[in-house]
Amino acid sequence: MRSAWNERPAYDRNNPNRTAPTVVNYDLDHLKVGENRVVVGRKDGYDLHDRDIAPGDGWSRALYAPECAWPRGADLCVVVEWHPDRKVGSDWSARLEAVTDGLRSLDYVVEWAGRPIDPAKDLYANLLVYRMEAGKTPPRRPGDAWAHVPPPRTYAWHEVNPLHHLESWLKDTKAAHNGTRVMVRDLNSALWPPEADFCALVRWQLAPDASAETVHAGVREMASVVQDLGYRLCTQERPLPNAVETVDLLVYAPHGATD
C-alpha cells in the first residue's frame, strides 16, 4: 500500500473553504490521527482508496468552516471530527488528547469547542482547529466556555423554530429580493461563539450582476433586522471581494437572552 498523498497541499487564503480542510487533513494523516487513506490498488485506470487505521483508534477528518465563524485574527480554520471505532471501542479522552497534542505541535490552536460530548450518545467529537495570522494572539477561553450550550432539540408543529423565524424575516428584506436566495441553517456548535445560546448560519446567494454597493447595503440591512430581533451578527474579517456569489453571516443570541 502507498499513501494517497503525493505531496503537501498548498493553502490558498483566497479559497479557504476548499484548501484549509485539505491542508489539515494532510497533517492529520501524517500525525497518524487522520483518515490515513492509502492506495490499495488500481481499477480501470483509477486508484482504489482505503483507510489504514489501527483497531480501536478511530479516525478524524477536517471539515470547512465558514469564515464568518472563525476566531478573530485567524488565518485558517476548520472543524476536526474524530470518529471512534465502535466495533473495538475507543478511549475518547485519550484519542482526543492525541489529536489535540499532534495538531498543537504543528502550531495550530486547538479547542474542545461546542456542546459537551456524551460518548454514550454522540457519534463523534468536534475540535475547533485554527491558525493565527502573524502577530495575532488567539482568544483566551476556558475549557468549559461552551458548557452552557444546550443539546440539539426538535420543535413540535405548534412551536416556533428560531431558524425558520429568522429566515422568514430575512426573506422579507430588500436584500433578499436583490439576490436569488436566503437560507438559514443550523451550525456545528463548535463554531458557535462561546457566549451564544443559539446560533445560525445565514447564506445569502446573490444575483450574478450584484454590485459591491448592493452587497454592502444588503449586509447592513440584514444586520439591522437581526439586531431588531435581539440577535447579534458577525461577518468575515477578511474584506469581501468586489465580485462575490454568496455572503455568509453568523447570527447568534447571547447567553441568557433566550431565557
What does this structure look like?
The chain has 259 residues and is an alpha+beta fold. The chain has helices at 16-30, 92-104, 162-170, 174-178, 212-228, and strands at 2-3, 37-43, 46-51, 59-64, 74-83, 109-111, 125-132, 179-186, 196-206, 232-234, 246-254. Strand 2 (37-43) and strand 3 form a beta hairpin. The longest helix has 17 residues, at 212-228. It is globular, with a radius of gyration of 20 Å. The model has no long low-confidence stretch (mean pLDDT 91).
List the helices and strands and how they pair.
Elements: E1 2-3, H1 16-30, E2 37-43, E3 46-51, E4 59-64, E5 74-83, H2 92-104, E6 109-111, E7 125-132, H3 162-170, H4 174-178, E8 179-186, E9 196-206, H5 212-228, E10 232-234, E11 246-254
Antiparallel strand pairs: 1-2, 2-3, 4-5, 5-7, 6-7, 8-9, 9-11, 10-11
